[in-house]
Input
Amino acid sequence: MVVVVGAYIQAAVSSSPIGAALTLAAVPAEYRGLIEEAGQSCPDVNPNLLAGLLYQESKFNPKAVSPAGAQGIAQFMPGTWASHGIDGDHDGDRDVWDPKDAIPSAGKYLCTVADEVKDVPGNKQNNMLASYNAGSSSVKRYGGIPPYKETQNYVRNINAYAAQGKGGGQTVSTTQSGTAVQAAKQMLGKPYSWGGGNASGPSTGICCSPNGRSGQSIVGFDCSGLVVYAYAKAGISLPRTAAQQYAATEPVRPGDLRPGDLVFYGSSASTIHHVGIYIGGGWIINAPRPGTDVRYDPMDTMPDLYGVGRPIPSTQKEI
Output
């Protein structure tokens, strides 16, 4: 979901809805960003469809092995992986067992088979899914979904799951988000500490920021630490980093923003590097950077505003 900063700011003030939200229902938080990004690999693929495929293939189990020898979260056969697996996280290794490689590979492979069967009659999406399961040669030979019960059920199940994914997940209530905002406001003026902050409040941080700044001697918060603390006061447990927090939220349309929503910055879902807490009127509570304090900032405080998300609750046992 790429957004225009000006559109978000205007919509936050005027409440004029712009665009549509994307929901990936029932997807483990650690895979949502990967699926959202890989699900936009080509026009034939979308994130809900890719999520449905991964659920059908492995139920999101990165260690899954089929009786036929298919491997990993996307269930690639070794030969198919050898020819179509990609290094999704650019670490120099193509690892079928690593979702950071396998999920982008699944998105790209869907695009490949969609192109291979683009001239086959019938529903293009169904033919693409059937090709992932039975091979594009079978789809071409039969002029559509092959007469295999497994493949027919495969296509039917993924379409049904993807349709469910278009619904909304249960997000935090206005009471919970209001409590989080009030908790964050009480921390205004606390110093920024790289790696600082947890569910209990401000804490010393770690070393070192990309610019070499250490939080080891500073009691305070970094951006995501402030979010963890604020929502812990509302009884909600969130992951520690900004990117992980994005994966634990449901995207919000610009015109639907409300206080307590989380504002994320980065060039893509996988490169999110900063988060702030929306308070209304186009403003956030923010722990900006080393050498600053927790403060109010406009949403366009950074040029790479990526999107806004509403946390999906995970209840804290201890606050």
Q: What stands out?
A: Residues 12-23, 315-319 have pLDDT under 50 and may be disordered. DSSP finds eleven helices and eight strands in the chain. The chain has two domains: 5-20+170-311, 29-164. The domain at 29-164 is CATH 1.10.530.10 (Lysozyme).
